Amino acid sequence: MKRATRGFTLIEVVITMALIALLASIAAPLTETVVRRGKEQELKTALHQLRDALDAYKMAADAGHIEKSLSSSGYPENLSVLVDGVRDLRDVKGGKIYFLRRIPRDPFAPPQQDIAEVWGLRSYDSPADDPRSGEDVFDVYSQSRLVGLNSIPYSEW
């Protein structure tokens, strides 16, 4: 007596592979969008942290808690000052005020780029539509040339 062999026919295997390929082609752009949204959220968070630290520095300078020359705008001369700290004029023991633990990285910047060069810097004297660096750091922006999912370039966030 002959037993029937069990298994899949060639047609069944081809149809299964075609369905898997179709599902993978649908899922690939979706995962790319999810990854991009995650990077956009990181960029928003980094910009928020940096801008909050710049504002806190300006408030401390205006309140007389840190040294400020008469000719300065009250903003830091570079981003490193926010991490390194500045002398607190209220503390007789010479303590410092720190505004950031570390400078966050732009998620759209090349990973090999130095953290000091990741962000575009806008000085207080620079117009918003043409940001330029100068004697102080009034604002930061992404130097990425990519456009966000909301159709706004990352450099304008």
UniProtKB/TrEMBL annotation:
CC per GO annotation: type II protein secretion system complex
GO biological process, one term: protein secretion by the type II secretion system
InterPro entries for the chain: Bac_GSPG_pilin, N_methyl_site, Pilin-like
Cited Gene3D superfamilies: Glycoprotein, Type 4 Pilin
Record bears the keyword tRNA processing: no
Record keywords: Methylation
One Pfam family in the UniProt entry: N_methyl
Protein's UniProt name: General secretion pathway protein GspG
Organism annotation: Pseudomonas marincola
Source species taxonomy: Bacteria, Pseudomonadati, Pseudomonadota, Gammaproteobacteria, Pseudomonadales
